[in-house]
Design goal:
Arylsulfatase, C-terminal domain, ten-stranded mixed β-sheet, Alkaline Phosphatase, subunit A, metal-binding, hydrolase, Sulfatase_CS, 12 helices, calcium, Alkaline_phosphatase_core_sf, alpha/beta, four-stranded antiparallel β-sheet
Length: about 525
């Protein structure tokens, strides 16, 4: 009996010892293993033709007040030296989604049209596909303007041009009843709601998940004038497409997507390319006539700011603001067609202190507002003077989700995460700029070199002559000459040589990031702006 009791005590002791060991192991495991951090939602908002001086947070003399975007800057980081990869629309969008300079594609100047084929090829990784592969729900809501492969009637040949104007109104062969042959859903987007190109370019139809929401039943008989500086090109129009309703509809669709996908185990990525304030300028009530300078353009910018405020409030109302990274920027500088004369008369400078506007190699053509908000990660009210490029978005996303690029992916993208979190080193050393006509410029530190500006070729094939420009190279020290008025190329030949050497190398290598040399896309005809790189 006594032995039996001792055996029970011994057995109980062993059991308790086993539990203690198991509990100790559990505690040790949880101490040494860090809990997995939930991936952030990511939203990239791209305005269209918004000048850096149009946001009051950037322009102390602005005649347009943008309180919601100003507040975004105060809650996050404002970049003062951010650049688009091109001074026009389509190329910048390509760079954002692929992390690659646009001029490496067949599109060497100008933009695509509503019936141009897809500029993004089916073997090209996009930021949407990258994030989708990492578990994200992805959405594209807004203005596409990167070309689309339309379904065609009666086996008609598909469109094969990119920027030639002569074929821009040929839409008769498009079969709107069929889904796109190649569009955003083939590039990693789970959901898409968009217009094909700019708000002044046909066809005027909404495309939801690569199919027209309504077939066009009407064609505008002539170019429609809204006011002296705002119009659109005639073309196919669907009954559910009202130009003045496009911006609010895109914002409504964006808000709906946020509400449907908030607080789920799966994070989401939204690419929201706005169609505004690009021409036609169409402010509606209650914003119409509300600006202090009596400008429809100013009203339109105020309308954008207010609608962005509704998106920001939605994030907070859904309780996901703290785990959402939001970027707001523009695809290029201010477009002079948007009533520049009136804005000047009212002492408003959409390019702020910089020279040039949309399309130009000058700073006003591609230096843009760039705001990033990520509570808990980015210090509020912080400012970065680092020179960044819109191509850097893709590498930043890859850094966030720990994805390592292959050699043929994101060849011109550098992660901005070190700048946002103040941890690590931002590796971009030089940035290549590109204007509407194919003119190259390169920036490193305070120095900017513009190469052969009078050899740019317009979409019509004619040489673009820049008035007052006679030098083969323009060299500016932006620290001393931010308005780019003094060409010092003759005074600093070694600096010209240094920057030209970098430019030539980055063109030839097919990349500006470290890695295996890549091929630039084949083109038909000459590439006059690259010619100088191979002459010497």
């Amino acid at each position: 009996m006594k032995n039996n009791k001792l055996f029970k005590v011994f057995s109980l002791s062993l059991s308790l010892l086993g539990l203690l060991v198991l509990f100790s192991s559990f505690i040790a495991k949880n101490i040494t293993e860090k809990p997995k951090t939930k991936k952030p939602n990511i939203i990239y908002i791209l305005a269209d033709d918004l000048g850096i001086g149009d946001l009051s947070i950037y322009n102390e003399n602005s005649k347009i007040q943008t309180p919601h975007l100003d507040q975004m800057a105060k809650e996050g980081m404002r970049f003062t030296d951010a650049h688009t990869s091109s001074a026009v629309c389509t190329p910048t969008r390509y760079g954002i989604l692929t992390g690659r300079y646009n001029w490496r594609t067949p599109l060497k100047e100008f933009v695509t049209w509503g019936n141009s084929p897809s500029l993004i090829q089916n073997n090209r990784l996009t930021v949407a596909q990258l994030l989708k592969d990492q578990g994200y729900k992805t959405a594209n809501i807004g203005k596409w303007h990167l070309g689309l492969n339309w379904s065609m009637k009666n086996n008609s040949p598909e469109f094969d041009h990119y920027s030639e104007r002569s074929d821009r109104l040929n839409f008769k062969a498009i079969d709107y009843s069929q889904p796109l042959k190649f569009g955003p859903l083939d590039m990693g987007f789970d959901y898409s709601f968009m217009i094909a190109a700019s708000l002044n370019m046909p066809p005027y139809v909404y495309l939801e998940n690569d199919k027209a929401t309504m077939l066009p039943t009407d064609k505008t008989e002539r170019n429609r004038k809204i006011h002296p500086f705002s119009s659109w090109i005639k073309g196919d129009v669907a009954d559910d497409f009202k130009h003045e309703e496009v911006l609010p509809k895109i914002v409504d669709k964006s808000i709906s997507f946020i509400k449907e996908n908030a607080n789920k185990d799966q994070p989401f990525f939204m690419y929201i390319p706005l169609p505004s304030p690009h021409n036609p300028v169409l402010p509606i009530a209650p914003w119409k006539g509300q600006s202090e300078i009596g400008s429809p353009y100013a009203d339109f910018v105020m309308m954008i700011d207010d609608l962005m405020g509704t998106i920001f409030e939605t994030l907070k109302a859904q309780g996901i603001d703290d785990n959402t990274l939001v970027v707001f920027t523009s695809d290029n500088g201010f477009a002079t067609t948007n009533d520049l004369k009136t804005l000047r008369q009212k002492k408003h400078s959409p390019s702020y202190v910089y020279s040039g506007y949309k399309g130009s190699y000058l700073e006003g053509g591609h230096r843009v507002p760039f705001l990033v908000k990520w509570p808990g990660k980015i210090k509020p009210n912080s400012i970065s003077d680092a020179t960044i490029c819109t191509t850097d978005f893709m590498a930043t996303c890859a850094d966030i989700v720990d994805y390592e690029f292959k050699d043929n992916e994101a060849e011109d993208s550098f992660s901005m995460l070190p700048l946002l979190t103040n941890e690590g080193t931002y590796l971009r050393d030089a940035t290549i700029h590109h204007d509407k006509y194919g003119v190259f410029a390169i920036r490193k530190g305070d120095w900017k070199l513009v190469m052969a500006p009078n050899s740019g070729i317009m979409a019509s094939g004619k040489t673009k002559i820049h008035k007052g420009v006679h030098s083969e190279a323009l060299l500016y020290n932006l620290k001393e000459d931010i308005k780019e008025k003094n060409n010092v190329a003759d005074q600093y030949p070694e600096k010209v040589k240094e920057l030209k050497t970098i430019l030539i190398k980055q063109i030839r290598d097919g990349r500006s990031t470290p890695g295996k040399i890549q091929e630039n896309d084949a083109i038909s005809g000459e590439w006059p702006q690259a010619a100088f790189a191979f002459e010497n």
